[in-house]
Amino acid sequence: MPLNTLLVNSPRDASSPIILSDPTGSSSAEVSLYGGQVVSWKNERREQLLYMSTKAQMKPPKAIRGGLPICFPQFGNFGALERHGFARNRFWSFDNDPSPLPPANQQSTVDLVLKSTEDDLKIWPHSFELRVRITISPGKLTIIPRVRNTDPKAFSFMFALRNYLYVSDISEVRVEGLETLDYLDNLMRRERFTEQADAITFDGEIDRVYLNTPTKIAIIDHERKRTIELRKEGMPNAVVWNPWDKKAKSIADMGDEDYTTMLCVDSGAIETPILLKPCEEWRGRQELSIVSSSYCSGQLDPRKVLYGDH
Length: 310
Known about the structure:
mainly beta
């Protein structure tokens, strides 16, 4: 089984989580074969960093509301495909051949794969292999997704990593790094606007796809004096979503007050779908890391988060 020796626990069945822990004990993660998604990420103080709905369902046919769902082959609600695609509510398998990625020596890693089935081909007629490598290291969670076209014809797809972040209080959170960028507002029929604020803050529902985004985005949680830095490659879009109170009450698998302690800041290739010719492979990369915040002794300098070396 292609799991590193630093893996704490391997699942006895598909419903049990895979538990990853870095050797220093400063980070741990749980990964579900259902959806191939991270469902928990904790720091050295065992504090949860990812939001999980109080009403989340961990079994078919419902996708898991929380953690880090993988959205493929679409993001959004287009055509006959289910919203955000079907990869997030399929059972994945261990990947015995993750090449050409190098061996994950001295890291706590799991490689998973999802291959198209006959049922999938009926709703999306393209043969594919979707692979993901999930790695935990001190203060950092890294995900490397790859999509290979195993079909005789070219196809295009959307892709996103939906990051459900657990925050102290949504009204005390700010997102920096998306200033002056254009975005599509899903609350306004995908009309295009330009971000005018110095930073994104939250006092109501938000659902935006930011375009041509930088490789680094900072999510600053003032109350916890903690910053999560999102670094991404191959995914030019960033989605910012919080349903707020009215929408949260209409979502069956979300608690009425859950919106106050969650925020989605996603990495994605959404505006322009990715085109793959037969035998071609697309690769992305995302790192979520905890950056020590100086907010307790003064305002955090966002330039150190967005442009400094960590």
